[in-house]
Amino acid sequence: xxxxxxxxxxxxxxxxxxxxxxxxxxxxxxxxxxxxxxxxxxxxxxxxxxxxxxxxxxxxxxxxxxxxxxxxxxxxxxxxxxxxxxxxxxxxxxxxxxxxxxxxxxxxxxxxxxxxxxxxxxxxxxxxxxxxxxxxxxxxxxxxxxxxxxxxxxxxxxxxxxxxxxxxxxxxxxxxxxxxxxxxxxxxxxxxxxxxxxxxxxxxxxxxxxxxxxxxxxxxxxxxxxxxxxxxxxxxxxxxxxxxxxxxxxxxxxxxxxxxxxxxxxxxxxxxxxxxxxxxxxxxxxxxxxxxxxxxxxxxxxxxxxxxxxxxxxxxxxxxxxxxxxxxxxxxxxxxxxxxxxxxxxxxxxxxxxxxxxxxxxxxxxxxxxxxxxxxxxxxxxxxxxxxxxxxxxxxxxxxxxxxxxxxxxxxxxxxxxxxxxxxxxxxxxxxxxxxxxxxxxxxxxxxxxxxxxxxxxxxxxxxxxxxxxxxxxxxxxxxxxxxxxxxxxxxxxxxxxxxxxxxxxxxxxxxxxxxxxxxxxxxxxxxxxxxxxxxxxxxxxxxxxxxxxxxxxxxxxxxxxxxxxxxxxxxxxxxxxxxxxx
Amino acid sequence: xxxxxxxxxxxxxxxxxxxxxxxxxxxxxxxxxxxxxxxxxxxxxxxxxxxxxxxxxxxxxxxxxxxxxxxxxxxxxxxxxxxxxxxxxxxxxxxxxxxxxxxxxxxxxxxxxxxxxxxxxxxxxxxxxxxxxxxxxxxxxxxxxxxxxxxxxxxxxxxxxxxxxxxxxxxxxxxxxxxxxxxxxxxxxxxxxxxxxxxxxxxxxxxxxxxxxxxxxxxxxxxxxxxxxxxxxxxxxxxxxxxxxxxxxxxxxxxxxxxxxxxxxxxxxxxxxxxxxxxxxxxxxxxxxxxxxxxxxxxxxxxxxxxxxxxxxxxxxxxxxxxxxxxxxxxxxxxxxxxxxxxxxxxxxxxxxxxxxxxxxxxxxxxxxxxxxxxxxxxxxxxxxxxxxxxxxxxxxxxxxxxxxxxxxxxxxxxxxxxxxxxxx
Lengths: 583, 425
Description:
Chain B: It is found in: Endoplasmic reticulum membrane. Chain B: Keywords: Endoplasmic reticulum, GPI-anchor biosynthesis, Membrane, Signal, Transmembrane, Transmembrane helix. The complex is a heterodimer. Helices cover 49% and strands 15% of the residues of chain A. By secondary structure, chain A is an alpha/beta fold. In chain A, strands 2-1-3-5-4-16 form a six-stranded mixed beta sheet. In chain A, strands 8-6-11-14-13 form a five-stranded mixed beta sheet, with helices on one face. In chain A, strand 13 and strand 14 form a beta hairpin. By secondary structure, chain B is mostly helical. Helices cover 69% and strands 0% of the residues of chain B. Chain B is built from 20 helices and no strands. In chain B, helix 9 (172-186) packs across helix 11. The interface between A and B is medium-sized, with 25 and 20 residues.
């Protein structure tokens, strides 16, 4: 094998150049590798989230302002100085409230009792009803000696944040204890609930099936008439009028909490998935409670609303076909049927079975009235509006509630709902942010983009704003209802922002991405390329080192021989080339 | 000879004209993903010209990915179907003519070199003559469907071949301008700058002169490119086309399936790794330019072929039009054919994928009885064919070089060729 020496050298040079050009391209690729696979992580305010979960910077509190109006129809016995006496009554009320409340949650609903100097003249109920309080969290108690013949203390809670306490004995002690007990009974359970909620001690409650739907700024109400078949003769219903009459006032009042859109539909030939049992003795068909979960024929009844993205609540009127009428809900044959003939599906809606004569094709407004009443109470439950008249514990005197005729609720309950929703939203937002913080901390591969940082920051700002608003709603007696509503708005925004950050698709996709995946991605690509490249690089380096060493050895050997350096250099090169060739 | 030449070109012209006249064929071929890609589709070009002629910025909508000057070229003639067809047909025929000329120039070159002796001291048989090369291009089914499907890759191919032709002729300015135009039209041909500069400096012994020519060429190339960009800017009035044309070519943002390797990969890719792998894939295409040019600096024409095949295989939006280019350049280097080992396999792979690609596409998209994997598998087979072609031609070229460098012993003993080295070891 005889290759010209210069050509071998040229081939060597070519090989090195080729290798070098590839390596340069690869080295240029490294910064791009770094840049394109960098896990971008926007800074998230973890500390702040942690602070909020302890409520260390601001603990939401809903101060209540109680205006006590004393009747001057009868003067208090033993009064010397009315000013001193008023102060005494106020401090006594506060003392009694604090001593009678077993829970330590008073900081969540701090009471401020004010005895209004301007005494209340009348003793008539109408005087109270004429003076409503429009500010959430501010309540007026009108106190007068009892006018009834039974001479017993009684309390009547009116619908517009007023209360009328009629005291049996017109003494300072009686007055203060009556007020204190009323306050405790009306607000006590709410206070503990909020306390538990804020301190995350409501786990056992959360585990229970909640009737109320998750809070949203708007709901879609769908009223559906399902007619079994033509035999029952139902053709249409006057739903629009019925809604305007029975639902609209309630929905309007509730609009401070959530907005509602309403739609209705009629569906014919809506068959059940099962045959109701016949109670031959009572001559009626019946549904047992264990069958109720299967009542809705999800396959055939189209209930999904297509028009809006709001969470929807469904209200169904089912008119059974003639051959299954009457249809009642009872626990078994012979048992008394359900009075309302209706049932509620938690977080979904309500259903009423309506039995009616077959000859009338139109469901009139008056026929729908009982149905609408049922739906209204179901809607209250679904929205989490607690009924004070049933939830207030029994005490030494009766408390009666006068609901607003049109809305069938009191503003007391509305205020309670507002406070509950605000605290729920705040707690949920902070919980969500906390989970997000833990998730991001636990997943170092997760990309955190700028929009997420913005969402989190904005959510925290909203939490702060809401918290400050509820605090502030208190201190000034002149504050309007808008402070609480603004707080609700902020808390809602906070929750939306927190959830949009948590459920951001860019984060969800990277939820599970362990390092092994990276090897799986890089290995097939780089191993086949890098092995020959590295090997040839090593080979070249070895050759280069060997050649250098040899040259050095030769140079030192020949230097002693005293030869000319230039000639020696040329000689070396030749030898080097020869060595390479033989290799 | 002249008669024969004109007969061949007339036949190619008539065939294309006849195919253009078959109703619906142009639309059918133009709609095939194997023929038109998002960056070469005539439909998109027409859309761009329409938008342009109505004063709407053509690059706003994300539909048009063709270079602005192409819009400018078609703007005056798009209303006349005949003119458009003639432009395509003549463009294709001109490529054939240039290939013929290139082969002729190369034959002249190699006649000055000493002939490589083959086994048994016989002189190497002459390669294909220019007309055969032109015929192989003009009657290649890939060329024909790409032309009748009105893929705009034709213009990029035209500029590329013109660059090589001018390089062979030694006209620096035109060679560099053509390569710049090809780079301007579809970016990847910018790799051909190196071999074309080698073409221009072939036979030049003086090192300083070579250096001078190189610098001059680099200047010419950059100046041509800059003037093309400037002209485009004047034409469309904005620089949006950079993002829309080269951004799409490099970023592979339109994942319409094609014969290439990108689309399926990036459909399945984790979003986080997308930019990284796009960079890797694109570097992979360009990484070949320098090593091939260095290694094959003695045979730049073959380097031109190899690089066109590399870009036709590994680019983001390959089509059969890219295959038409490198398959047209391959017979120019016909002297390596006898050293190729897998010709049969390669031909079979091309035929296999050409037949099955439309079928699997139909199964996937129209019948729904197949899925994307079917079509991608055919794309893989096609790419394997291309890669084997690359490997085999490179091997054949190296083998021929070896034969040339180590001629067999003039006398005595059996001539073992390549095996001698093995035997010695």
